[in-house]
Fold this protein.
Amino acid sequence: MLSDEKKQKYVAEGGVRCPFCGSDQIEAGMFNHDIPLIQEVSCLEPICGKRWFDEFKIVDVMEID
């Protein structure tokens, strides 16, 4: 189970390393287009192999000229 501290670190670092083992060998799958918008991510490190969901939120809107 992930601690709140590990979750916060994963998010703060932009979700580029496995939150369980720290490997940068992760792979993201297809987006689920329901609300909340989620994406399954897997750690490709053989000794870890964990899977999790990243949850995305709208944080801003920008006008297109």
